[in-house]
Design brief:
The structure is a single chain. The chain has a domain of 216 residues: FAD/NAD(P)-binding domain (3-Layer(bba) Sandwich). It contains 11 helices and 19 strands. Strand 5 and strand 6 form a beta hairpin. The longest helix is centred in the last third of the chain and has 30 residues. The two termini are 29 Å apart. The protein binds flavin-adenine dinucleotide. Flavin-adenine dinucleotide binds next to helix 1, strand 2, strand 3, strand 9 and strand 13. Its cofactor is FAD. One of its GO terms (molecular function) is monooxygenase activity.
């Protein structure tokens, strides 16, 4: 290992994997990302980022790009009923806008920060082996099985993480949260402008965020007892469920190409006992997959990436640096994961009584309480980089 940095393998080229690769390269590390997909395509829909994630992106040196591909959205503080009434309205000065973007746009700018040779597509990690001195990823390519060695291996391979299962064979399997989610993006300029809002129905929650190029990202989450429900025509199913909700919801659905609508079961992970073992660390959904109800999964992955890159900067004792990362990240990310599991137990309840209480309380107490709750979640700031091995005063 050189004084500047060593060698790192990152399993998974999602937002978490690319972000930590960028952070490590800035710290002088030589990084290779192994991504299962054969190519990086325009995938996914939209998502939103809270201030904690933007600060993490700044710490990683990609904050400007994140802002440049994003559009402010008021959906965090504008809550409506299916008939169109307001439970809460975004108030400038009190409420913080989130930043929404298309996944493909953010992915493209993150990839742009890495040299082509640092990202290997069509490389599916199938196992991890480590000794005191080195860690090895075994991965499958179209040309056969390969092995790569490094000083550290980061498992950023999502909720079904092979790195997690390989290094922590007893780790729990993902848990279905009895939630089904549809997502879509409108054609550019078809419904515009849209400020961003959420609409709470009984057992169903809709949200919409403006995106760049005058597109709108929308999602619908509903209660679903069993995983695996699939529909021939997703858009028709969404219309069937909420087509009579307030405008612009029907307009947004009409402006969405039917073939592009995504439908997924929502799983999360029970708590892990550690995110680090020797020279292997987990990050993002591989470590703490959570429901999307706080819109924090990718935000937490960016926080992880900022802290992991900071802990490995100048580190000579890799296991000790990864143990510090685990100590710094596990309590916070597990708290957010726990909150994201609890939230839909009330907010997606199908009980009429719970729905009435929830909407009435939100109307009465609304903005102030929600703003304080969000502030606690979003208040995170990255640490000031320190030189490891030196005691701070
Ligand atoms: C409906 C929905 C809405 C959401 N909205 C938001 C939001 O608004 N804000 C927010 O912050 N978060 C949101 N999230 C959460 C967010 O999508 C995830 O937390 C985030 O994508 C996690 O990033 P990641 O890089 O850890 O994992 P992933 O995005 O899952 O990336 C993992 C990568 O690893 C690759 N991979 C998998 N296995 C292997 C292997 N064996 N070898 C090599 N590569 C492999 C995959 O192909 C993928 O590219 C939402 C999630 C859902 C489901």
């Amino acid at each position: 290992m050189t004084e500047r940095g060593g060698t790192a393998l990152v399993a998974g080229g999602g937002i978490g994997g690319l972000a930590v690769a960028i952070g490590l390269r800035r710290a002088g590390w030589s990084v290779t990302v192994l991504e299962r997909a054969a190519e990086f395509r325009e995938v996914g829909a939209g998502w939103s980022f809270a201030p904690n994630a933007v600060r993490a992106a700044d710490a990683l040196g990609v904050g400007e790009e994140l802002r440049a591909v994003s559009v402010p959205t008021e959906a965090g503080a504008t809550l409506r009923t299916p008939a169109g009434g307001h439970l809460m309205r975004f108030r400038a000065g009190r409420d913080t806008p989130l930043l929404a973007n298309h996944r493909a746009d953010l992915h493209r700018v993150l990839l742009g920060h890495l040299p082509a040779a640092a990202v290997r597509a069509g490389a599916e990690v199938t196992g991890v082996e480590q000794t005191d001195r080195r860690v090895t990823a075994v991965y499958r390519t179209p040309g056969g099985l390969r092995r790569a060695e490094a000083d550290v291996l980061i498992g950023a391979d999502g909720i079904g993480s092979v790195v997690r299962r390989s290094t922590w064979p007893d780790s729990p399997a993902p848990v279905f949260q009895r939630i089904l989610c549809w997502r879509g993006v409108t054609k550019p300029g078809s419904v515009w402008p849209v400020e961003g809002f959420q609409t709470w129905g009984r057992g169903a929650r809709f949200g919409a965020h403006p995106l760049s190029r005058q597109r709108v990202f929308w999602f619908l989450t509903v209660r679903q007892n069993e995983p695996g429900a699939r529909y021939d025509d997703n858009l028709a199913e969404v219309r069937h469920r909420i087509g009579d909700w307030h405008e612009p919801i029907p307009a947004l659905l009409s402006a969405t190409p039917p073939d592009s609508v995504l439908c997924h079961d929502i799983y999360d992970l029970d708590p892990l006992t550690s995110y680090a073992a020797g020279r292997v660390a987990l990050l993002g959904d591989a470590a703490h997959a959570m429901t999307p109800f706080l819109a924090q999964g990718a935000c937490q992955a960016l926080e992880d990436a900022a802290i992991l890159a900071s802990e490995l900067t100048g580190a000579t004792e890799i296991p000790a640096a990864l143990a510090r990362y685990d100590e710094a990240r596990r309590p916070r990310s597990q708290q957010v994961r726990h909150m994201a599991r609890q939230d839909p137990r009330i907010s997606l309840s199908t009980s009429t009584l719970t729905y009435c209480l929830m909407t009435r309380l939100t109307r009465l107490a609304g903005g102030g309480v929600a703003a304080r709750k969000a502030a606690r979640l979003w208040d995170w700031t990255p640490p000031i980089p320190s030189r490891h091995g030196e005691e701070s005063e």
